[in-house]
Amino acid sequence: MAGERAGKSFTGAAYGAAMYMSTMISCPEQLGWMVGYDYETCMPEFTEMSNKLMSIGILNANDVQVRDGGRDKCRFTTSTGLTVETISGSEPHKISRLAPNFILGCEVGHWTEAMWHNVIGRLMEKRGCLWASGSFESNTGWLVELWRKWQGDSDEGGRSYSIPSWANPVVYPLGEEDPEILRRRAMLPPWVYEQRHLGIPSAPKGMVFTDFLPSLHISPLAVYDPSLPMHIFIDPGNKSAYAVLAVQFGHKSVVVVDEIYERDRTNAEVIAIACHREWWPPSKGVIDVAGTQHHGERSSEEAWREAGVRCSYRHIKVEDGIDRLRSLLRSDGKGDTPTLLVHPRCRGLIAEMGAGQSPFPGRQPWCYKTDAQGNVLSEVPDDRNNDACKALYYGLIANLGYVERRPRNTEPVSYLGNVGPKWYETESSAHRSREKEFWGR
Predict the structure, then answer these.
(1) Phi-psi region at 255: left, alpha or beta (left = phi > 0; alpha = psi -120 to 50)
(2) What is the CATH number of the domain that holds 64?
(3) Beta strand ranges found along 22-79 (DSSP E)
(4) For the range 279-284, what are the long-range contacts, defined as Cβ-Cβ under 8 Å and sequence gap of 24 or more?
(5) How remote is the C-alpha of 13 from its chain's centroid?
(6) Are 250 and 359 found together in one domain?
């Protein structure tokens, strides 16, 4: 993995050309793939490699086919028998049709884990090799876990490296002391600088939910179950995000099966999107109390009610909401607190938790305010980048009640990890039933 402008395309193309030249005599006819999330992503490597092979005289410019400016499949065939094609990972069936001798993976930070395994599977028949490069888009996820595992010897035989931006002397002739590098270091938060220019996965200081773990809480098995009631939890933002989570309560688990995460959308537009989802209509709804306010037209609560969804609402302190959500993240499912499972398609929620790239460019995870050294300045986090998280804890409190901190010398509900407060349930079902009169007014 590498920093921005570190020469990933140049290095990958050089690797592919050198790998072929080293085996050309024993195996002249080979197939190489350049795989990206789309065709355009492959073009820098494709251009670099074709130029290198033309410079040594085994590729004629007339044999390089570029379709639609690189937005469609491109290919070239050398005079010695090497064929190289660009492949779009957004079309999985094209990954599974042939067995290449080698693959150059382009911008793997945008790949899904399923796409990665499809690519690896294509190399098995010919015992091919893979060179994959890109930049980290988040500080967690399958790619980060793989990168960390491959930092040393591994059973898979892979190795991972981080290449800083200044490794490219053409762009940064003075290396780490290049004025542009120094300027970027001064203007960017440390975690952003490390990720963008050192090729190292890094998290912002003071993230609210450091205990949200992709390996535990993100699962493709978190799917809609028609036999269970469907709940929707709503935070009707506009310029920030309009978040709607589709949630079901299973056996010892709370399952977020889907989300709507939009910006600059009206209530009617979001409701129209929801009406076409497989889980529509929901049984119950919970909405931010701010959704009852009028701004020259119907409130959000009224709009959803007219669409057939009666939503409950009440004011909830942010600290209480965070406590409720953390109790699920730290639960192992053996006590009274269920665990949380989130489907990978819920990108907005996952990004706010700090485990993925946001659907909105430049949007960061939900964080506490920190000073220049990363020290948290307040127990109340910034009221930004939290729309899906708030929608989730509104619904959790409506259905599960509150939690509160218990003295350290008492027995807590079991949970994973050894940091932060310990929890126990404080509200009985009878107590919650008495509170129903407060909901939906």
Answers:
(1) beta
(2) 3.40.50
(3) 30-36, 64-65, 75-77
(4) 279/224, 279/230, 279/246, 281/230, 281/308, 281/309, 282/230, 282/231, 282/232, 282/246, 282/309, 283/229, 283/230, 283/231, 284/229, 284/231, 284/232, 284/310, 284/312
(5) 28
(6) yes
The answer to whether 191 touches 204, Cβ cutoff 8 Å, is yes
Divide the 441 residues of the chain into consecutive groups of 10 and give the mean pLDDT of each group.
91 92 91 93 95 95 93 94 91 70 93 88 90 82 83 83 93 94 85 85 80 85 95 91 96 95 95 97 95 84 96 94 94 87 94 86 84 76 94 96 58 32 39 37 33
Question: Are 263 and 126 within one domain?
Answer: no
Tell me, what's the pLDDT at 372?
A: 67
**Boundary residue ending a domain (167, 187, 202):** 167
| CATH number of the structural domain spanning residue 357 | 3.30.420.280
The reply to whether 195 falls in a domain is no
Check if the beta carbon of residue 367 is closer than 8 Å to that of residue 382. Answer: yes
Supply 263's token pair. 């910006």
Q: Say if residues 186 and 177 touch (Cβ distance below 8 Å).
A: no
Q: Give the domain range for residue 122.
A: 8-167
**Count: domains in the chain:** 2
